[in-house]
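Cross-posting from the modeling subforum.

Setting up a comparison between two proteins and wanted a second pair of eyes on the formatting. Protein 1 (sequence, then C-alpha cells):
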Amino acid sequence: MAVKTWPMHSPGVSRSSVAPFFTPRNGTRIDRRAFLSALGGMLALGAFGPGDALAAKHVTLEKEDAAEGEGATAAPSGKLVRIDRGTDGVTLTFALANAPFPLLGAPYEDRSVLVFVPHHYRLPKDRRLDALIHFHGHNNTAEGAVHEHALREQLAESKQNAILIAPQGPVRAADSNGGKLEHKGGLRRMTDELARELAKPSLKRILGPSATTAAKSFGTVCLSAHSGGYRVAAACLMQGEVEVTEVYLFDALYGAGPSFRAWLKAGGGKRRHHKLISTYATPPVRANNLVLMAELRADGFNVLHELKPGELSRKALTDGRAIFIASPLDHGGVTHRHNNLRDCLYASQLHRHQKSDWFDNKNAARQIDSR
C-alpha cells in the first residue's frame, strides 16, 4: 500500500523535506530549521529531563496543530507523531503513555501504537469505536506486521466499519512480553488514552469524513495475534478490563490454552457472544489446537474444524463460536496469503455499513482468494 508521510521530522523523513516556514494565524512566519536547531540545542543542554526526549521530538507537530487546527481550542498533546496516507486510508502513529513499553526491567523503549482508519470509516451515532487490535509476533515490529501481513488492506476489503490498532511490542526480538498490557487494566488504560487522542478536533482535518472526532469510547473490540502475540492477547482477555468479542489466532496457540478456553466459556450472550477462530500451520501449534478442540468439545461447544482450505462455508464461519482452520501455508503467510484475516472480519460481529457480496452462496464452500 503506497503511503505518503506527513511532512514532519520523524524517522524516515529528512530535515530537508520539512517546509522552511509555517505561518500561524497571527501572520508571524516561523523558521522551522531555526526552531529545530534551537530544539536540538535544548536537548544537548539537558533542558528536557529523562524520558522527555520523545515528547521534545514532537513539539513541531504541537506547534503546527496549534497554528493550523480547524476549530481546535487547544493544541494537541503531541502524542500524534506520524501520519501516513495510503490508498485505503490513513495510518496514525501515536506515542502513548499506556503503550506496552517502556516498562521497568524490559529493554524496549518504543511506545508507538499504530492506528489505521479506512477511508470508508464513519463514526457511529453512538460515538463508539469498533476496533481490531493486532499483536505482532517475534522478530517483527507493529509497522512491519501491518505492512507484511496486509492488515490494512484486509480490513479495508472486509468493509467493516472499524479501525485497526497495532501496539508496538518487543522490537525485532524473540520475546512475547506484553509489557504494560499484561498488567491488570492495561488494555483498558491504553484504549482509554487512545480514545481521547482520536477524539481531538485536530484529527478532523487529517481524516476528513472518516474523522473519529467526538469519539467517546470503544464499542465492539476484536483481538488478533500472530505467532508469539498469543501471550499478550491472552493476558488482555484475562485482566485487560475490556470486553473482547472475538479473537483470531494465526499460528499463535503456543500456549495459554486455558485462558482462551475460559474466555470462550464466559461469553455465551445471544446478542454478542465470544468467538474464537484459530488458524494453525506448524506442528507444535497444531498439537495445541487439537488439545483445545477436545477440551471445548467436552465443554459442550460445537467445534468446527476445517481441514481443507475453504471447506467451511461463509455461514459456518459467521455462526460458529469455536472454529479451527488447518492451513497449508507457512508460519509467516498464515495471516494474509489466503486473506485469512479478511474472512474472519467479514464473518465477525463488527458493524458494516457498506454492501458486500461476500455472503452470496453463503452455504457453499468458501472460495479462497490468494494474495
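Protein 2 (same layout):
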Amino acid sequence: MKLQGKIAVVTGAGQGIGRGIAEIFAEQGADLILNDVVPSKGLEELGDWIRGKGRRAVTVLGDVSLRSDVEQIFDRGWADLGPVDILVNNAGIETIIPFLDLTDEQWQKVMDTNLKSQWMSCQSFCKRVIADSRKASIVNIGSIQAARVLPGRTHYAPSKLAVEALTRNISAEMGSHGIRVNCVHPGLIDTPMISWVLESPNLRSQVVGQISLGRPGLPREIGSVVAFLASEEAAYVTGQSLFADGGWVGK
C-alpha cells in the first residue's frame, strides 16, 4: 500500500471528490483527518467507513477560509494522530453568476474559499513540517476551468487557475525542505456539485460529447491520481499540475 503509515489531512471531505480521495487514501494505508465546514451525516459515515477499514480517522469541522479554523485543523491532527505527512487542499465552492451581475461579495467569497484557504493551509502545514524536520507532500485541487472557459465563472475560473500558480511558487520555495507540492485539475466528475448537469439529458450529452473518454469521471478516480502524487512513487515530482479530465482539455 503506497500510503502505509502516512497521516493525511483532506479538506472538504464530506462528499464528492474529497470523499473519493479519503477512501482511496484509507485503502492505501493512510490515517485521515477529515475536514468539512458544517456537520454532515456523510462526514461521520466516512469516518466510520475508514475506521472499519482498520485505519484511524478524526473529523474536524472548520471553515478553511479562516486562519483560526485552519490552525485548529492541524492542531487536532497533530494532537490526535501525530505529525501529518500529507495535505490535500480539496475544499472549494462554485457559483454560476453572469459577469455583469457579479458582486464584490460573491467574488471575495469564492476567492477566500478556493484560493486564500489553500495558501493559508499550505503555509500552516509547511511551518509545522519544517519544525519537525520531516519531508511531506501537498496536493492542491484545482479545476478543468483553469484551462476551459465556461459561462458564469469569471470568479470561479480565476480562483482555480491561481491555484496552479500558487502550487508552482510554493513548490519552488519548499523543495529545499523536502516538501513536494502538486496540483490536480479534475474535469467533469460525478459529484453532487455537478448533478444538475448530469441529470439534464441535453446538458449531459453536450458536455460529455467534449470529453475524449466519453463519460464523467468518478471521485475515486481523482483519489487515485492524488494518492500517486502524494506517495513516494512521485518522489521526483513537484510543482506540476495534472489534468484528470478524461481528455476534455485536449479535445
